[in-house]
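User: ok so my PI wants both of these folded by tonight, can you help

Assistant: No problem, let's get them done. Here's the first:
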Amino acid sequence: MRPVKRSRVNKARSAGKFRKQVGKTKMANLRSNPMRGGWRL
């Protein structure tokens, strides 16, 4: 593993993208099986 030394990474945009994806997976999970309670990330 290389040490992380990336510059000019838009953290806010990445966080927004990540949050959107988490919301999508959460919705898919709730729709498919709400009683099992496993969160896909």
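One down. Here's the second:
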Amino acid sequence: MRREYLQFVESLSCEVKVCSTIEEALVQCVVSLPNILILDDSFSVYEVSVLVRVFQEKKDWQTVSMFVVGNVEKHLFPKETVFVQSIHELVNSLKDVFDTLYS
């Protein structure tokens, strides 16, 4: 699935980061804050709570559109978080974000 994300985002003009761990997501955001952050794995409650806490504390990070693929502790994420179960759902959700970004 990760390979499909990368192929899809190669031609985009906004910055998209695909991460399979919470640690990787935090590092990617510190290095270069993306427009879109895709998390493509299952995470522990602790990891999710750390990520959400960091995003809540850093105001500039609140502009990142976050997509979560897979089964996670959905109730721990902000209500704006998009959860997807398939590539088709992800592509449709990303299209909505791009329509908003470039309209």
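Residues 39 and 75 are 16 Å apart (CA to CA). The first strand starts at residue 16 and ends at 19. Good luck tonight!
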